[in-house]
């Protein structure tokens, strides 16, 4: 009986210890993710501010789009090709064909898209700002609402209405990221 009780106590202690270990591991992973996220914002924010002053694009929008479009710089497109915004292209000399998901006719589909390849993330950020300023080849005024927005909420709505992304939840996602990481602080002095 004593051996049985001792075994139960040891098993219980082991289970309790295992659960404590799992909690510790989860906290450590959460802290690591937070550190990685902060490092990403710290990396792109100064250039987003510079581009905001140069082109009039709110830095909070640029940073939030870089976060969403590149999965914090971890997507294949971002890691291997420095494309933080999913910018497509047509020239085989400076693009790479990759699979992507597009929202079409009320559903997500997988397609092959030709995406721009950049020498570094700053080149990608500048191209993104120039796309918003100059529009597309078929509509030079396409993103003017984004540029003339008074704040990040108006700009996020304009991104959706101006056709930047096919994701019907894009506006909400941009706004949530800006609010969660207090990215609006980078907009001060831009407009």
Automatic annotation (TrEMBL):
A Pfam family the protein falls into: Glucosaminidase
Keyword Hydrolase: yes
UniProt xrefs under InterPro entries: Glycosyl_Hydrolase_73, MGlyc_endo_b_GlcNAc-like_dom
Keywords for this protein: Hydrolase
Domain of life: Bacteria
Single GO molecular function: hydrolase activity
Residues annotated as domain Mannosyl-glycoprotein endo-beta-N-acetylglucosamidase-like: 30-187
Entry's family note: Belongs to the glycosyl hydrolase 73 family.
Protein name: Glycoside hydrolase family 73 protein
Record organism: Companilactobacillus keshanensis
């Amino acid at each position: 009986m004593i051996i049985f009780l001792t075994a139960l106590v040891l098993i219980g202690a082991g289970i309790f210890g295992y659960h404590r270990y799992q909690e510790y591991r989860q906290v450590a992973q959460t802290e690591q993710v937070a550190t990685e996220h902060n490092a990403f914002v710290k990396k792109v924010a100064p250039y987003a501010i510079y581009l905001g002053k140069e082109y009039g694009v709110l830095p909070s929008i640029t940073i939030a789009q870089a976060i969403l479009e590149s999965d914090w710089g971890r997507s294949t497109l971002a890691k291997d090709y420095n494309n933080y915004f999913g910018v497509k292209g047509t020239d085989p000399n400076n693009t790479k064909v990759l699979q992507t998901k597009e929202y079409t006719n009320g559903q997500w589909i997988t397609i092959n898209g030709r995406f721009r390849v950049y020498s570094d993330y700053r080149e990608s950020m500048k191209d993104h700002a120039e796309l918003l300023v100059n529009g597309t080849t078929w509509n030079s005024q396409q993103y003017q609402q984004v540029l003339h927005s008074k704040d990040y909420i108006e700009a996020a709505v304009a991104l959706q209405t101006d056709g930047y992304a096919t994701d019907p939840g894009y506006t909400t996602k941009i706004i949530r990221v800006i609010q969660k990481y207090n990215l609006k602080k980078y907009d001060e002095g831009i407009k």
